[in-house]
Give the backbone structure.
Amino acid sequence: MAFAYKIQQQLTSVYVIVWDKEFLGNIDPETHQKFVEMTESLDKNIQKFFRVPKDFELKYTCADHAGNKRKAKISRYIPEYVSQ
């Protein structure tokens, strides 16, 4: 996870990047489904326990340093702060 801060040292956003090991959906659909369920669970827990609603989600494909294809997703969450 990556965190972005303002000068006041206040958390302004949280970025979560996940990717699978190659194209699991083409190779092992059952394992890919478990991967999808795990990332969806992570998303729900982040929003539930950390009060950071999702701002956006971007799905894309990429290659790792060995040239293996990956499915990836980046999500941005914006914290809700209570007014003081």
Q: What stands out?
A: The helical segments are 24-27, 29-50. The mean pLDDT is 78. The beta strands are 2-5, 11-19, 54-63, 69-77. The CA atoms of residues 42 and 48 lie 10 Å apart.
